[in-house]
């Protein structure tokens, strides 16, 4: 008889600061409950170790003859390959390193051919909403269903004039966590001869993203949301518009040759991707991003199960807190990643966030999350709270948040709070700062 041997379950990747203790206004120290991964995720331990390993070899990229420069240049190229694999890019796609998602989308906006029509939805993050300028931009009001979004896009593209067209699609809402119908929207774009750029900033840390399978032309992401907080992001996609555009920034690296013609300089620009990466490359940030991509790509099954369990626990717990109303674009049952925004009837979101931190050691986000149109519409003009899950989140963190909210709603805070420079804080805050801030 053959006995089936169970496959070992891969351990969940660990993050730096998982055991961080933070002070409370009561004088105690508790483990920090980081429920703000959607803003900036903590650093993976493997990313930290990879950066530490690289730092002694850190040197100039592309333009150095020394051995350390050769090493750094190779590391930079390997990072480009890792991002390409992570996003399922096509063989001819460019991988341009940027500072973050905002930088990547602004780069693409600068590279659009003249008279390009741009279509996007108005509840997108400001990084996707604001870079596009001119009369050719069509901002669509987000409908109440994913199917409605597909129909709205079809109608908008039918009305676009002849010429190049670009559709801006969000992978997952940074407000509600809801996953957009990317493949369906891309199929509509194809029928109308439009290209698609996918804002994967919130989707990529939670789900695999495959440009070929989704049939999108470009994708953008940020390292600081992918557990690689070292200042790198990427624009990945078709190279032709990038080759035809003037460099995003001008300077060293973007130039193949500069010649003196007396009253003017002659410039021959570099090929893509160097054409849009002027200045000394952020080799440490790119390496960190590449390592994070490789680590996450090997653990999707485990990280997905971890997140699904915590998300169900969080949503069920919040539903038991008096006055809590969860925000949603497409309805409570729509597929989503580990991001939940909500309002609490009669309670100021900034005050609640301050009390959760000061009295319970919990980090959440409050406000409009750089998506003002979405939050103001869904929250009826109020500021909201957002709890976002990730690799550093635990069941205890979720349970602590639910219990703390219930206590604040039913019993009130333990200390007095006041507003300073527009932010709530304990009226008397004696919590000690870490030594490097003293």
Largest sheet: 7 strands, mixed
Number of helices: 13
Helical residue percent? 25-40%
Q: What is the residue-averaged pLDDT?
A: 95
Give a count of the beta strands, DSSP E runs of length 2 or more.
19
Low-confidence sequence ranges: 5-9
Our measurement of the CA-to-CA distance between the termini, rounded to an integer number of angstroms, reads 67 Å
Strands of the biggest beta sheet: in what spatial order?
Answer: 4-10-9-8-7-5-6
Quaternary structure classification: single chain
Q: Any idea what the shape is?
A: globular
Gyration radius, rounded = 23 Å
Q: Structural class of the helices, strands and pairings?
A: alpha/beta
* Residue share in β-strands: 15-25%
């Amino acid at each position: 008889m053959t006995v089936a041997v169970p496959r070992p379950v891969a351990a969940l990747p660990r993050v730096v600061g998982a055991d961080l203790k933070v002070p409370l206004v009561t004088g105690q120290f508790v483990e920090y409950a980081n429920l703000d991964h959607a803003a900036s995720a903590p650093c993976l331990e493997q990313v930290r170790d990879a950066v530490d390993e690289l730092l002694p070899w850190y040197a100039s990229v592309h333009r150095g003859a020394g051995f350390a420069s050769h090493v750094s240049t190779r590391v930079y190229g390997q990072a480009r390959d890792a991002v390409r694999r992570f996003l399922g890019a096509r063989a001819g796609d460019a991988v341009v390193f940027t500072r973050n998602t905002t930088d990547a989308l602004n780069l693409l906006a600068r590279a659009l051919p003249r008279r390009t029509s741009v279509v996007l939805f108005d509840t997108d993050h400001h990084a996707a909403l604001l870079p596009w300028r001119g009369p050719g931009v069509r901002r669509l009001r987000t409908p109440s269903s994913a199917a409605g979004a597909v129909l709205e896009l079809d109608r908008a593209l039918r009305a676009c004039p002849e010429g190049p067209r670009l559709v801006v699609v969000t992978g997952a809402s940074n407000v509600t966590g809801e996953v957009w119908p990317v493949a369906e929207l891309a199929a509509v774009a194809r029928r109308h001869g439009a290209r698609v750029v996918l804002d994967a900033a919130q989707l990529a840390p939670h789900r695999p993203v495959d440009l070929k399978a989704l049939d999108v032309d470009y994708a953008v992401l940020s390292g600081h949301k992918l557990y690689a907080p070292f200042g790198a992001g990427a624009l990945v996609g078709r190279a032709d518009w990038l080759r035809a555009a003037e460099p995003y920034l001008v300077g060293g690296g973007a130039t193949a040759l500069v010649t003196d013609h007396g009253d003017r300089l002659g410039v021959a620009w570099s090929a893509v991707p160097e054409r849009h990466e002027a200045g000394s490359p952020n080799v440490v940030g790119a390496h960190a991003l590449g390592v994070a991509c490789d680590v996450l790509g090997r653990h999707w099954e485990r990280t997905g199960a971890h997140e699904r369990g915590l998300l169900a626990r969080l949503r069920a717990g919040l539903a038991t807190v008096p006055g809590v109303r969860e925000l949603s674009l497409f309805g409570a049952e729509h597929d989503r990643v580990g991001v939940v925004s909500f309002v609490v009837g009669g309670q100021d979101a900034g005050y609640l966030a301050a009390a959760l931190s000061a009295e319970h050691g919990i980090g959440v986000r409050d406000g409009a999350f750089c998506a003002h149109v979405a939050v103001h519409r869904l929250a009826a003009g109020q500021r909201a709270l957002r709890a976002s899950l990730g690799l550093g989140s635990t069941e205890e963190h979720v349970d602590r948040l639910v219990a703390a909210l219930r206590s604040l709603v039913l019993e009130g805070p333990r200390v007095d709070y006041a507003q300073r420079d527009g932010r709530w804080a304990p009226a008397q805050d004696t919590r000690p700062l870490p030594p490097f801030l003293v």
